[in-house]
Amino acid sequence: MTTKILPPRLGSYNVAEEWMEGETFNWERVHPVFTWYESGKVNMSYECVDRHVDEGKGDKIALHYFSENEEETYTYEELQREVNRWSNVLKDHGVTKGDFVFVFLPKHPHCHIAMLAAIKIGAVVGPLFEAFMEEAVKDRINDCEGEFLITNSKFLDRVNRPEIPSLKTVFTTDLEASGSDISITKEAKEADDQAETVWVDLDDGLNIHYTSGSTGKPKGIIHAHRNMIQQYQTGRWVLDLKEDDVYWCTAHPGWVTGTVYGVFAPLLNGVTTVIHGSRFSADSWYQVLEQAQVSVWYSAPTAFRMLMANGDKTLEKYDLSSLRHVLSVGEPLNPEVIYWGEKALDLRIHDTWWMTETGAQLVANLPTRTIKPGSMGRPIPGIEVTVLDEEGDELPAGETGHLAIKSSWPSLMKEVWKNEEKFKSYFPYGEKWYIAGDLAYLDEEGYVFFQGRSDDMINSSGERIGPFEVESKLIEHEAVKEVGVIGKPDPVRGEIVKAFIALNEGYEESAELLEEIRLFVRSGLAAHAAPKEIEVVDELPKTQISGKVLRRELKKRDKAG
Ligand code: WTA
Known about the structure:
- Residues 469-544 form the AMP-binding enzyme C-terminal domain.
- It holds the Pfam family AMP-binding_C.
- By secondary structure, the protein is an alpha/beta fold.
- It has 2 domains: 14-19 and 23-440, ANL, N-terminal domain (Rossmann fold, 3-Layer(aba) Sandwich); 464-560, GMP Synthetase, Chain A, domain 3.
- 30% of the residues lie in helices and 23% in strands.
- It is built from 18 helices and 26 strands.
- A 9-stranded mixed β-sheet has the order 2-1-11-10-12-13-14-15-16, sandwiched between helices. A 5-stranded parallel β-sheet has the order 4-3-5-6-7.
- It is globular.
- The chain starts with 13 loop residues before the first helix and ends with a helix.
- The mean pLDDT is 96.
- 5'-O-[(S)-ethoxy(hydroxy)phosphoryl]adenosine binds at residues 211, 256-257, 329-333, 351-356, 376, 436-438, 450, 453, 459, 464.
C-alpha cells in the first residue's frame, strides 16, 4: 500500500493559541490555570470537580453514563456533592492521607466518584481492571499492603480476603453490605455533602497502576498530583478539548488510559465525559456516539479494527455528525485503519503514544499537524525525543534503536513502589534519557515510527501483559512442567498470548487438557491474559548457564512455523 500524508483540516485548535511550531515550551506556563498557583498546595480532585463549581460551571454535565438499560447524568455540582459524601464516609472509616485505596468497579459513575473521593482526602488510588480475577487482584493489593478497597458484591467473589492480610476495610457500592463490610452508597446518603479538601504537595502520591514488563510480577507505578499540569495540557492540545465538548474515552480506569484520559484530563478541562457500561459491539458503540453526541473520541486500534471489520452497513444506521476529533492509543495504528477512518467517519484518526510510567501523552499527532500514517506523530511541545543505540549514542534519522525521552517532564512517574532498582532501570544511560523499552526510528522531520518492543512484553488489544505473570500461573497447573509465553502477531488484536508448554509425566496432550489449562489462567488471572494458543513441546529452549526459558527463541520458532 502506498502511504499518503493527511494534512490538517481547518478549524480552531487549542495548541495554535498557546504554542508556535519550533518554539520550546516551558511547562510553568500552565501553572496559573490551577487553584494551587498561589498556595502551592494542590489536590487533583479539587481541580477536577470543585474548581468548576467555584467558577460558576456547576450546572454543566460532568458525567453522562450509558449502559444497555440505564442512562444517568451528573452535573459538576451533583458530582461535587457525591464526591464529598463518599469522601466523608471514607474518612469516617479511617482513610487518611497517603493510604492506598483500591477501586475495583465496572465502568460506572461509581468508579469515578470512588476515585475522586479517595483523592480528595489525600489517599493514593489504585484502580483495578474490571476483568481481573483472584490472583491478579491479590498480587496487586498485597504488593503495597493496601488496607482499603471499594468494590461491589459481584466483584467481591474475586477478592480472596484470607490471602490479602493487609486489607482492613472493604466498602461496597451495594445498598446492603454483608458482614463487616461497609455500604458506601448507603452511608453516603446520610453523609454531609460538604467536605474538606486535604491539600497536599505537588509531589505527593495520587495513583498507583500495576504494569508489566518482561520479568517479574507487575510493578506498582506511582504518580503524583503534579501530573495534572501535563494531563490538563495534553487534554487541550492533543484531545483538543473545548468548553462544549462531549468526550468519550473507551478505556476502563484499571488501565492507565482510562484513569488519565477517562477521568482526570477531561474533568480538568471541564468537559462532559461519557461513560459506557456495556460490552463492545459495533452497534452499541455507534449508538453511544450518536446518542451522547460525542464530539471527541479516544479509543484503540483493536476497537477500530473491529469496527472496520464490521463493515459500513452498521455504521450507516447512525448519525455520527457530532464527531469532530478521533484519537487512538496503546498499540500500533495501521495505516489501513486511518484510511478507513477518513472514508467511514470522514475524519483523521490521530495516533498518540505514551506509557503508564510516563503519566501522559508524549508523542502525538496534533490536530494542527500533518499525519503520516504508520507514524505515531511527533513529540508534543515541551518534550524531546531521540533514538539511541546500545551504547546510548544518538542514532541518525531512519535508524532503529531505543526510543528515548529527555527527562524530565511533569507527569513522569514518581517512583516504582519499593523498587528503586526498577525505577533506575528506565535510565540505563544516565539521568538524561528515559528509555521506554520501545524500538523506533525518527524520520528527517522528527516523526516517530514504532518498530516493536526491546523486551518480551506482550501487547494484546492495547493491553499490556507480562509473560512472567502468565507463566507463573500456568506453572501452577498440575499438568505443566515447563512453560514459555510469547506474543504472537495477530491481524485484529495486534498480538495474542501464546504459550509453549512441556507436560509432566503421566499427562497426554488432548484438546480437553489444553482447554482446561487455558481456563485455569482465565479464571485465575484475567481473560485477556489467558493464552489463545497453547503448543505442547517436549522441551523448551533455555539458556545454558541460568536455565532461563528463551522466549526469543520461541518467537523465532513460531514464525518459522
Ligand atoms: C505500546 C498505554 C504503538 C508501547 C498508554 C508502550 C504503543 C506500551 C502506542 C505502553 C502507539 C502505546 N503505537 N505502541 N500509539 N501507545 N504503545 O503502559 O509498546 O499500557 O511502551 O500504556 O504500549 O503500554 P501502557
